[in-house]
């Protein structure tokens, strides 16, 4: 499978009061038929694919909220050419789902009470809020081909205090077509919504509500095995739009000069040294075109991107699998006043299970984040993610997670380099296969070479209803 080298408004209908949604969801899950069978469930386009490499424990357990965005982006970003096989019985002990014809639907509804405290320089604010989440997967049970759809939506309702609500949504679909024993085609589509982080370098300082970011994705790829040679080629398209920013003085600020389209073509070839070791070479080229030729300050932000990577794909079964790649990426802007961005890229993901009940994920990701500052091109971001999942008892799972993101700006940029560190811990107690009690702690700190640092701490407890 060609890794997509690409990348994250909620409608008013999402702003439903949490209790009403929870009651409706409970009624839906309770009344569903029980006769079901269990099935295995920056600025680059984000592939819309269920992760085939995630271990059973990681894939079936919610992560700490502080790492949701980073992990989901990483989880969708890296795919192998061969789709490394899933762990044995990834859904063992989980809710069986709902049979709908030749599909199996697995919904989950959660309600969480959270308290958050943010500190930025000398100022601080805190809030308490309810977070309602609905997610699920729909998977076909066909003898040939497969259609998979996954979705998740989250809304937040502040109960007390001050702080911006952060709704988000994500829907991805993939149709796998088995054209022959050695040839596979994949068609993908997806949509995401998120609120721009107030700590993002492009965020507006005096905003009451940051911009809402809508991302639309399409992709197609074809893979073929030629003996020991494995080849793949794919194309991805992404459209990203930015909503207005609500300022604290009551005015609104348009962000339409950031709206853009991105198309990327990727080719990959691998050689099977053994079924467990496949070195590969990968090359890609892309073009990003902004809706407005010039932004508010008169700069042409459209650019071309080129990348080359060499790496190794490994598959030693459920104990160790994944891939790592090292390469170089460059981004060339249409405006000659903007400096080209380029640097070494580190990408990959490794799943390791040292012993039964313990799952460890290591991930690396490199991507570009275009700037909105006059005269500056942007930054190249390097992200390292680690998630450890431990089954403490048959019904109790513990999680530790951390993530480090380094934003590297050119030496002549007025913006300073940043390092963002996130850590989280959580427990999930399965009171039954349909109901779970969750608890999470998380902490985030952003250090800047120049300017004030920021800190965010959050604690939450909630219930998850599954079917």
CATH class descriptor: Mainly Beta
Shape: globular
- Which band does the percent of strand residues land in? over 45%
Order of helices and strands: HHHEEEEEEEEEEEEEEEEEEEEEE
How many independent structural domains?
1
CATH topology: Maltoporin, Chain A
The CATH level-2 architecture is identified as Beta Barrel
Q: What is the residue-averaged pLDDT?
A: 82
The number of distinct β-strands equals: 22
Low-confidence stretches: 1-66, 74-91
Radius of gyration: 22 Å
Termini gap = 31 Å
User: How many H/I helices?
Assistant: 3
Largest β sheet strand count, sense and barrel closure: 18 strands, antiparallel, barrel
Blueprint of the fold:
Layout: H1 18-31, H2 56-59, H3 68-77, E1 98-100, E2 103-120, E3 123-140, E4 146-161, E5 168-178, E6 183-195, E7 207-209, E8 212-226, E9 229-242, E10 245-247, E11 252-253, E12 260-271, E13 277-290, E14 303-315, E15 320-333, E16 341-352, E17 358-370, E18 378-393, E19 396-408, E20 418-430, E21 435-448, E22 454-466
Antiparallel strand pairs: 1-2, 2-3, 2-22, 3-4, 4-5, 5-6, 6-8, 7-10, 8-9, 9-12, 10-11, 12-13, 13-14, 14-15, 15-16, 16-17, 17-18, 18-19, 19-20, 20-21, 21-22
């Amino acid at each position: 499978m060609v890794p997509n080298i690409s990348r994250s408004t909620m409608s008013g209908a999402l702003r439903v009061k949490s209790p009403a949604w929870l009651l409706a969801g409970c009624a839906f899950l309770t009344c569903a038929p029980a006769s079901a069978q269990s099935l295995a469930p920056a600025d680059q386009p984000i592939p819309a694919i269920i992760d085939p490499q995630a271990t059973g424990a990681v894939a079936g357990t919610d992560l700490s909220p502080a790492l949701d965005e980073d992990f989901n982006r990483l989880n969708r970003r890296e795919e192998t050419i061969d789709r490394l096989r899933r762990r044995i019985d990834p859904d063992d002990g989980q809710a069986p789902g709902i049979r709908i014809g030749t599909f199996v639907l697995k919904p989950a509804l959660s309600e969480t009470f959270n308290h958050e405290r943010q500190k930025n320089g000398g100022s601080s604010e805190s809030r308490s809020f309810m977070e309602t989440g609905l997610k699920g997967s729909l998977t076909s049970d066909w003898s040939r081909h497969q259609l998979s759809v996954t979705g998740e939506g989250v809304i937040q309702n502040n109960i007390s205090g001050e702080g911006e609500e952060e709704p988000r949504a994500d829907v991805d679909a993939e149709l796998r077509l088995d054209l022959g024993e050695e040839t596979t085609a994949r068609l993908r589509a997806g949509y995401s919504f998120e609120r721009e982080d107030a700590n993002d370098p492009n965020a507006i300082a005096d905003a009451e509500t940051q911009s809402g970011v809508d991302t639309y994705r399409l992709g197609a790829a074809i893979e073929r095995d030629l003996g020991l040679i494995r080849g793949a080629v794919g194309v991805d398209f992404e459209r990203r739009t930015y909503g207005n920013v609500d300022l604290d003085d009551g005015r609104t600020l348009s962000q339409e000069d950031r709206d853009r389209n991105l198309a990327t073509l990727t080719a990959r070839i691998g050689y099977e040294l053994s079924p467990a070791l496949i070195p590969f070479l990968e090359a890609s080229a892309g073009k990003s075109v902004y809706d407005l030729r010039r932004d508010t300050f008169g700069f042409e932000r459209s650019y071309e991107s080129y990348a080359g990577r060499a790496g190794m794909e490994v598959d030693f079964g459920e104990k160790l699998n994944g891939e790592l790649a090292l390469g170089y990426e460059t981004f060339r802007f249409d405006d000659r006043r903007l400096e080209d961005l380029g640097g070494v890229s580190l990408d990959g993901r490794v799943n390791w299970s040292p012993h039964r009940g313990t799952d460890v994920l290591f991930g690396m990701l490199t991507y570009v984040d275009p700037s909105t500052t006059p005269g500056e091109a942007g930054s190249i971001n390097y992200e390292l993610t680690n998630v450890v999942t431990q089954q403490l008892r048959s019904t109790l799972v513990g999680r530790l997670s951390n993530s480090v993101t380094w934003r590297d700006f050119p030496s002549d940029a007025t913006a300073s380099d940043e390092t963002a560190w996130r850590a989280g811990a959580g427990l999930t107690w399965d009171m039954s296969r349909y109901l779970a009690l969750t608890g999470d702690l998380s902490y985030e700190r952003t250090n800047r070479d120049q300017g004030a640092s920021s800190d965010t701490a959050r604690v939450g407890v909630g219930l998850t209803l599954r079917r």
